[in-house]
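My current task is to audit a protein record that another person submitted. I have pasted the whole thing underneath without changing anything:
***
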Amino acid sequence: MKHFLRMFVQVCLYFYCKCLWRCLKFVVRKLTGQCELQRICYNTKPGAARTMKIEASLKGSKSKRLQTSVNVHPDAIEKTIDDIMELKRINPDRNPQLGVSLQACLLQIVGYRNLIAEVEKLRREPYDSENPQHEEMLLKLWKCLKPNSPLKARISKQWCEIGFQGDDPKTDFRGMGLLGLYNLVYFAEWDTEIAQQVLTDSLHPKYREVTKKELSQLSKAEWEKKKFDKAIGYSFAIVGINITDLAYNLLVSGALKTHFYNVAPEAPTLTHFQQTFCYLMHEFHKFWIDEDPLDIMEFNRVREKFYRRILRQLQNPEMALCPHFAASESLINM
């Protein structure tokens, strides 16, 4: 009985708040002479804050035409803008900037949805050793990371040198499919110097520098133990596939909207996603060193802590993940 009453009260509150909110919107429109879309575009600067408000407004509209406007084909966006202006009785000649602002927002919203579909397609496509293109990409990964060490054979223990688990990397791509390979190759090809340095550090890990404050807090026994402890490395390629999974989850959950809506003036693309992967790989590497784990068994703990940190950063509507390496210079300058 209590459960039923609680649900009844919640339903009543929901409809009460919904009706109250619509009444409030009606009053504000009468007072300002502007609909909610106009107020958002005129009072919120371009970027994630504006686009996410526009997206929420369209999805929460009582009009089916407005609700479905976030799911149109990119080629239909201009007509969709005209439909919105007509439905809202907005004169486009008197409000020329509104159409431009709405178009930019819809390009980002629709582009994000299409990016998820493109990424998902790559994730679902398994690595095929009989496919020449797949094999070519895998060999390119080796050449970019180990340019001075020729691969002696396609099936070789040498693959362990760049962080694969066995003598044939194809088995390691099962979780993320081709998406994992695409990201690793992009990192190795476009941020070669950083990728090679991260690989070297993963094989020959170094401690982060201990600050004077931390040093003063260590007991003599802890310091003696610290001197003889060995820093823990990780498998570069396997971690790259794992960070691909992390980036994928951020994308599908919508968390990356903040970043993409702030850095992509129009539709975010696969390149934006790959550049974000490069940033996450670089940042995770630094985070791993700072965390100074006792052994590789702590990987999941460190990864989860890193994931939570990125999520917190992306909760800021003005947040743009700002990499400090070549692959993302174009992002920073956009």
Summary: Residues 24-33, 225-229, 323-334 have pLDDT under 50 and may be disordered.
